[in-house]
Amino acid sequence: MAPKSEGTAKKVTNKGAWTAEEDRRLSEYIEVHGAKRWKTIAAKSGLNRCGKSCRLRWLNYLRPNIKRGNISDEEEDLILRLHKLLGNRWSLIAGRLPGRTDNEIKNYWNSHLSKKISQKEKPPNKVVPEASPETSPATPQEVVLPAEEGAVKVVGNFLDVDFDTDEFFDFTAEGSYGLEWVNEFLELDEGLSLKEKM
DNA sequence: AACGAAGTCAACCGCTAATTT
DNA sequence: GAAATTAGCGGTTGACTTCGT
Protein backbone atom coordinates (compact mmCIF):
# COMPACT_ATOMS: atom_id res chain seq x y z
CA MET A 1 0.00 0.00 0.00
CA ALA A 2 1.55 3.25 -1.02
CA PRO A 3 0.82 6.31 1.08
CA LYS A 4 -1.58 8.59 -0.69
CA SER A 5 0.05 11.83 0.37
CA GLU A 6 0.28 14.60 -2.18
CA GLY A 7 2.80 17.33 -2.60
CA THR A 8 0.49 20.30 -2.29
CA ALA A 9 1.03 23.41 -0.22
CA LYS A 10 -1.89 22.41 1.96
CA LYS A 11 -1.16 20.27 5.00
CA VAL A 12 -2.05 16.77 3.90
CA THR A 13 -1.74 13.87 6.29
CA ASN A 14 -0.35 10.51 5.29
CA LYS A 15 -2.72 7.64 4.83
CA GLY A 16 -2.22 3.98 4.20
CA ALA A 17 0.37 1.58 5.52
CA TRP A 18 2.83 2.68 8.16
CA THR A 19 6.54 2.59 7.41
CA ALA A 20 9.14 1.24 9.83
CA GLU A 21 10.42 4.77 10.28
CA GLU A 22 6.97 6.04 11.26
CA ASP A 23 6.58 3.18 13.72
CA ARG A 24 9.92 3.98 15.27
CA ARG A 25 9.10 7.66 15.64
CA LEU A 26 5.74 6.97 17.20
CA SER A 27 7.11 4.41 19.62
CA GLU A 28 9.91 6.71 20.68
CA TYR A 29 7.58 9.62 21.26
CA ILE A 30 5.13 7.56 23.30
CA GLU A 31 7.94 6.05 25.32
CA VAL A 32 8.93 9.53 26.43
CA HIS A 33 5.59 11.32 26.64
CA GLY A 34 3.07 8.56 27.15
CA ALA A 35 0.06 7.50 25.11
CA LYS A 36 -2.19 10.47 25.70
CA ARG A 37 -3.50 13.30 23.57
CA TRP A 38 -3.17 11.66 20.22
CA LYS A 39 -3.58 14.89 18.30
CA THR A 40 -0.60 16.30 20.11
CA ILE A 41 1.37 13.10 19.61
CA ALA A 42 0.64 13.25 15.89
CA ALA A 43 1.72 16.86 15.69
CA LYS A 44 4.78 16.78 17.94
CA SER A 45 6.23 13.47 16.88
CA GLY A 46 6.72 14.86 13.41
CA LEU A 47 4.51 12.22 11.91
CA ASN A 48 2.35 13.42 9.09
CA ARG A 49 -0.58 11.43 10.45
CA CYS A 50 -3.83 12.20 12.20
CA GLY A 51 -4.17 11.40 15.88
CA LYS A 52 -6.66 8.66 15.22
CA SER A 53 -4.25 6.88 12.95
CA CYS A 54 -1.46 7.12 15.53
CA ARG A 55 -3.71 5.75 18.24
CA LEU A 56 -4.81 2.82 16.11
CA ARG A 57 -1.26 1.98 15.11
CA TRP A 58 -0.07 2.06 18.69
CA LEU A 59 -2.94 0.03 20.11
CA ASN A 60 -2.95 -2.61 17.40
CA TYR A 61 0.72 -3.07 16.61
CA LEU A 62 3.25 -1.10 18.59
CA ARG A 63 1.97 -1.47 22.13
CA PRO A 64 4.08 -3.80 24.28
CA ASN A 65 2.88 -7.39 24.86
CA ILE A 66 0.88 -7.50 21.67
CA LYS A 67 0.32 -11.02 20.37
CA ARG A 68 -0.07 -11.37 16.66
CA GLY A 69 -1.48 -14.29 14.70
CA ASN A 70 -1.60 -17.93 15.82
CA ILE A 71 -4.84 -17.75 17.71
CA SER A 72 -4.93 -20.89 19.80
CA ASP A 73 -7.85 -23.28 20.10
CA GLU A 74 -8.40 -22.06 23.61
CA GLU A 75 -8.53 -18.47 22.47
CA GLU A 76 -10.82 -19.37 19.61
CA ASP A 77 -13.15 -21.15 21.97
CA LEU A 78 -13.19 -18.15 24.24
CA ILE A 79 -13.94 -15.82 21.36
CA LEU A 80 -16.86 -18.01 20.33
CA ARG A 81 -18.24 -18.08 23.83
CA LEU A 82 -17.79 -14.41 24.41
CA HIS A 83 -19.34 -13.56 21.09
CA LYS A 84 -22.34 -15.66 21.95
CA LEU A 85 -22.56 -13.75 25.17
CA LEU A 86 -21.69 -10.24 24.08
CA GLY A 87 -22.37 -10.03 20.36
CA ASN A 88 -20.10 -7.78 18.31
CA ARG A 89 -18.54 -6.07 21.33
CA TRP A 90 -15.07 -6.59 19.97
CA SER A 91 -13.29 -4.43 22.48
CA LEU A 92 -14.92 -6.29 25.37
CA ILE A 93 -14.04 -9.63 23.85
CA ALA A 94 -10.48 -8.47 23.19
CA GLY A 95 -10.33 -7.29 26.77
CA ARG A 96 -10.66 -10.90 27.87
CA LEU A 97 -7.84 -12.04 25.59
CA PRO A 98 -4.59 -10.53 26.86
CA GLY A 99 -2.40 -9.26 24.07
CA ARG A 100 -5.14 -9.42 21.48
CA THR A 101 -6.74 -6.37 19.91
CA ASP A 102 -10.32 -5.69 19.00
CA ASN A 103 -9.33 -5.28 15.38
CA GLU A 104 -7.63 -8.65 15.28
CA ILE A 105 -10.55 -10.39 16.96
CA LYS A 106 -12.99 -8.70 14.62
CA ASN A 107 -10.98 -9.71 11.55
CA TYR A 108 -10.55 -13.23 12.85
CA TRP A 109 -14.26 -13.49 13.47
CA ASN A 110 -15.21 -12.16 10.06
CA SER A 111 -12.75 -14.27 8.11
CA HIS A 112 -12.70 -17.51 10.11
CA LEU A 113 -15.27 -17.98 12.81
CA SER A 114 -18.39 -16.58 11.20
CA LYS A 115 -17.97 -19.09 8.39
CA LYS A 116 -17.19 -21.93 10.74
CA ILE A 117 -20.35 -21.19 12.64
CA SER A 118 -22.61 -20.82 9.64
CA GLN A 119 -21.35 -24.18 8.37
CA LYS A 120 -21.99 -25.76 11.73
CA GLU A 121 -25.40 -24.13 12.06
CA LYS A 122 -26.60 -25.02 8.60
CA PRO A 123 -27.61 -28.66 8.53
CA PRO A 124 -27.17 -30.20 5.10
CA ASN A 125 -30.15 -29.88 2.70
CA LYS A 126 -31.89 -27.50 4.98
CA VAL A 127 -32.36 -23.80 4.56
CA VAL A 128 -32.03 -21.82 7.74
CA PRO A 129 -34.84 -19.26 7.81
CA GLU A 130 -33.01 -16.60 9.73
CA ALA A 131 -29.48 -15.85 10.79
CA SER A 132 -28.39 -17.75 13.88
CA PRO A 133 -27.67 -15.88 17.10
CA GLU A 134 -23.96 -16.36 16.45
CA THR A 135 -24.01 -14.88 13.00
CA SER A 136 -26.48 -12.12 13.55
CA PRO A 137 -24.93 -9.05 15.07
CA ALA A 138 -25.33 -8.46 18.74
CA THR A 139 -28.62 -9.92 19.76
CA PRO A 140 -27.81 -11.26 23.16
CA GLN A 141 -30.31 -13.34 25.02
CA GLU A 142 -31.81 -12.09 28.19
CA VAL A 143 -29.62 -13.14 31.07
CA VAL A 144 -29.81 -11.88 34.59
CA LEU A 145 -27.43 -13.06 37.23
CA PRO A 146 -28.21 -12.87 40.93
CA ALA A 147 -27.45 -9.49 42.36
CA GLU A 148 -24.20 -10.10 44.09
CA GLU A 149 -20.92 -8.31 44.07
CA GLY A 150 -19.21 -8.45 40.71
CA ALA A 151 -22.23 -9.92 39.02
CA VAL A 152 -22.89 -9.20 35.39
CA LYS A 153 -26.36 -8.17 34.47
CA VAL A 154 -27.51 -8.42 30.89
CA VAL A 155 -31.04 -7.46 30.07
CA GLY A 156 -32.61 -7.39 26.64
CA ASN A 157 -30.45 -5.51 24.19
CA PHE A 158 -27.14 -4.40 25.52
CA LEU A 159 -28.25 -0.95 26.44
CA ASP A 160 -28.80 -2.25 29.92
CA VAL A 161 -25.49 -3.86 30.59
CA ASP A 162 -24.14 -3.49 34.06
CA PHE A 163 -20.59 -4.80 34.28
CA ASP A 164 -18.15 -4.67 37.07
CA THR A 165 -15.53 -3.37 34.73
CA ASP A 166 -12.71 -3.59 37.25
CA GLU A 167 -13.19 -7.30 37.49
CA PHE A 168 -13.96 -7.69 33.84
CA PHE A 169 -10.66 -6.21 32.82
CA ASP A 170 -8.60 -7.61 35.62
CA PHE A 171 -6.02 -9.89 34.04
CA THR A 172 -3.92 -10.37 37.11
CA ALA A 173 -5.61 -13.65 37.94
CA GLU A 174 -5.74 -14.93 34.40
CA GLY A 175 -5.19 -18.62 34.32
CA SER A 176 -6.77 -20.13 31.28
CA TYR A 177 -8.10 -16.83 29.97
CA GLY A 178 -10.73 -16.79 32.69
CA LEU A 179 -12.71 -19.49 31.00
CA GLU A 180 -14.36 -20.54 34.23
CA TRP A 181 -16.13 -17.21 34.28
CA VAL A 182 -17.46 -17.72 30.77
CA ASN A 183 -18.41 -21.31 31.40
CA GLU A 184 -20.45 -20.39 34.44
CA PHE A 185 -22.08 -17.61 32.55
CA LEU A 186 -22.98 -19.69 29.55
CA GLU A 187 -24.27 -22.54 31.63
CA LEU A 188 -26.65 -20.11 33.23
CA ASP A 189 -27.51 -18.69 29.85
CA GLU A 190 -28.26 -22.10 28.39
CA GLY A 191 -30.35 -22.97 31.41
CA LEU A 192 -32.48 -19.93 30.85
CA SER A 193 -32.85 -20.58 27.15
CA LEU A 194 -34.06 -24.11 27.83
CA LYS A 195 -36.57 -22.79 30.31
CA GLU A 196 -37.91 -20.33 27.75
CA LYS A 197 -38.49 -23.11 25.25
CA MET A 198 -40.60 -25.11 27.72
C1' DA B 1 1.78 -19.54 -16.96
C1' DA B 2 -2.12 -16.49 -16.77
C1' DC B 3 -6.10 -14.93 -15.00
C1' DG B 4 -10.10 -14.19 -12.03
C1' DA B 5 -12.29 -15.21 -7.58
C1' DA B 6 -12.07 -15.54 -2.89
C1' DG B 7 -9.81 -14.75 1.42
C1' DT B 8 -7.16 -11.94 4.64
C1' DC B 9 -6.04 -8.06 7.27
C1' DA B 10 -4.31 -3.21 8.03
C1' DA B 11 -6.20 1.04 8.01
C1' DC B 12 -9.86 4.49 7.50
C1' DC B 13 -14.44 6.52 8.45
C1' DG B 14 -18.38 7.97 10.90
C1' DC B 15 -20.41 8.10 14.98
C1' DT B 16 -21.04 8.26 20.10
C1' DA B 17 -19.31 8.68 24.76
C1' DA B 18 -16.37 10.74 27.91
C1' DT B 19 -13.63 14.42 29.39
C1' DT B 20 -12.04 19.08 29.56
C1' DT B 21 -12.58 24.04 29.25
C1' DG C 1 -24.65 23.66 32.19
C1' DA C 2 -22.96 24.26 27.39
C1' DA C 3 -19.59 23.87 24.00
C1' DA C 4 -15.42 22.06 22.40
C1' DT C 5 -12.17 18.56 22.32
C1' DT C 6 -10.50 13.93 22.74
C1' DA C 7 -10.92 8.93 23.06
C1' DG C 8 -12.89 4.82 21.71
C1' DC C 9 -15.84 1.70 19.16
C1' DG C 10 -17.72 -1.00 15.31
C1' DG C 11 -18.43 -1.16 10.39
C1' DT C 12 -16.38 -0.85 6.02
C1' DT C 13 -12.91 -0.44 2.47
C1' DG C 14 -9.22 -1.64 -0.44
C1' DA C 15 -4.59 -3.56 -1.30
C1' DC C 16 -2.31 -7.67 -1.17
C1' DT C 17 -2.08 -12.81 -1.17
C1' DT C 18 -3.63 -17.36 -2.08
C1' DC C 19 -6.29 -20.64 -4.50
C1' DG C 20 -8.68 -22.77 -8.30
C1' DT C 21 -9.32 -23.27 -13.15
Automatic annotation (TrEMBL):
Coiled coil: none annotated. One of its GO terms (cellular component) is nucleus. Residues 117-140 are annotated as: Disordered. It comes from the Eukaryota. It is found in: Nucleus. It holds the Pfam family Myb_DNA-binding. Keywords: DNA-binding, Nucleus, Repeat. Residues 10-62, 63-113 form the Myb-like domain. PANTHER family: MYB TRANSCRIPTION FACTOR, TRANSCRIPTION FACTOR MYB51-LIKE ISOFORM X1. This is Uncharacterized protein.
